[in-house]
Amino acid sequence: MEAIRMEHGAGGAAMQRLIKERIVKRLGGSGVEVPLEAMDDSAVVNGIVLKSDSYTVKPIFFPGGDIGRLSVSGTVNDIAVMGGRPLALASGLIIEEGFPLQDFDRVLESMTKTCSEAGVFVVTGDTKVVEKGGIDGIVINMSGIGIRSPALDSNLAEVRRRRALSSRWLLDSNLADGDAIIVSGTIGDHGMAIMSCREGYGFEGSISSDVAPLNALVESLLEVGGIVSMKDPTRGGLSNALNEWSQKSNVGILIHEDRIPIKGEVRAACEMLGIDPLDVGNEGKLVIGTIAEKAEEVLEELRRHELGRDAEIIGYATKRYEGVVMRTQVGGLRVLPPPVGDPIPRIC
User: Fold this and answer.
1) Torsions phi, psi of 195, nearest 5?
2) Which distant-in-sequence residues (6+ apart) come within 8 Å of 42 by Cβ?
3) What's the structural domain count of the chain?
4) Residue 99: burial class (beta carbons within 10 Å; 0-12, 13-18, 19+)
């Protein structure tokens, strides 16, 4: 009998097949403005941006963050990258019997602090306790709603002055030939911080998670204009995010290996473990698609912010290739397929 495997929840090709062939097949078809079938970061219903996510990270406390900060940041970011302005959150807490109250307080305090950073509040929710061994410590489901960002219309108007675009939101399917691809900073930080802390590799002194709410940064970028698509490259990392864009937009993507920002410590850790940093999840980075004419302005705005100071233009959408292709540091070309799953499970 076939069964669910870990890679079915890891954000790569296996999870995409599971969602398309089993979940969307049965639960899709709603006909809303941005429906389940689009498989974007959030849905849009009657102008309201809606997102729900569940967090099972192990360990729950890690260098740079914890499950509480992760639950708020991840949900806020998925609303923001659609062009939404997050308004409020609903929190579902599932707690294992015997979970230390001191740790519970730490998680709640972290959620409170991160909500303050993002300018949102938890306004409703639910709390359940399950028997010892029923789950691993604590699981958080976080849902969020948002409205259309006031800056989104002027941003898209700037795009339409340069080329055709029918979408009213920042969708994975908006990318077109010639659009620039930007990453907002170093990749792989979150996944490698989790891996080191969980497995005891000893990298945690030099590698810290990037987990952070990005909605304020997104708002400032929309005011610059020219942005067509945006994603936070979580499970499956940069390679999965780019492959989703390429597939949904029906356009190739060429990126340059020497332009991708990666911290030396992360690169060394990945090489030691045999992991491609492009497949490793992030929780405080953006991948941005923008019309070429606005790319340098967007990059300049990113670098003005602490969360975007290491941003780089890493490539362009192109009809010359199919899928995602990377020009290597030695000058060759390498096809960059979507990972089957994130090489580091339970990072979010």
Assistant:
1) -60, -45
2) 34, 49, 50, 51, 78, 79, 81, 82, 84, 146
3) 1
4) middle
Please, what's the largest Cα pairwise distance for the chain? 59
> Considering the domain boundaries, does residue 211 fall inside one?
yes
> pTM of whole model > 0.85?
yes
Give the C-alpha separation, 206 to 91, whole Å.
32
The residues, ordered by sequence, that sit 6+ positions from 46 with a Cβ below 8 Å of its Cβ are: 32, 33
Tell how strand 121-130 and strand 84-96 pair up. parallel
Query: Of 62, 106, 56, which is closest to residue 194 (Cα–Cα)?
Result: 62
> What's the CATH number where 216 sits?
3.90.650.10
Is residue 340 in some structural domain? no
In a domain, 5, yes or no: no
Cβ pair 74, 55 in contact under 8 A: yes
- DSSP labels, 244-276: HHHHHHT-EEEEEGGGS---HHHHHHHHHHT--
The reply to whether 212 falls in a domain is: yes
Nearest CA-CA partner of 48 in 123, 120, 147, 152: 147
Task: Please state whether beta strands 138-148 and 43-45 pair in parallel, antiparallel, or not at all (unpaired).
Answer: unpaired
Instruction: Say if CB 134 and CB 96 are below 8 A apart.
Output: yes
Q: Which domain holds residue 279?
A: 31-335
In angstroms, the CA 55 to CA 60 distance is: 10
User: Residue 280 carries which side chain, given as an amino acid letter?
Assistant: V
> What's the rounded Cα separation, in Å, for the pair 280 and 93?
27
Per-residue pLDDT of the chain (348 residues; tens, 9 = 90+): 688 776 766 666 777 777 776 777 777 776 788 777 777 778 999 999 999 999 999 999 999 999 999 999 999 999 999 999 999 999 999 999 999 999 999 999 999 999 999 999 999 999 999 999 999 999 999 999 999 999 999 999 999 999 999 999 999 999 999 999 999 999 999 999 998 888 877 765 689 999 999 999 999 999 999 999 999 999 899 999 999 999 999 999 999 999 999 999 999 999 988 999 999 999 999 999 999 999 999 999 999 999 999 999 999 999 999 999 999 999 999 999 988 766 788 898
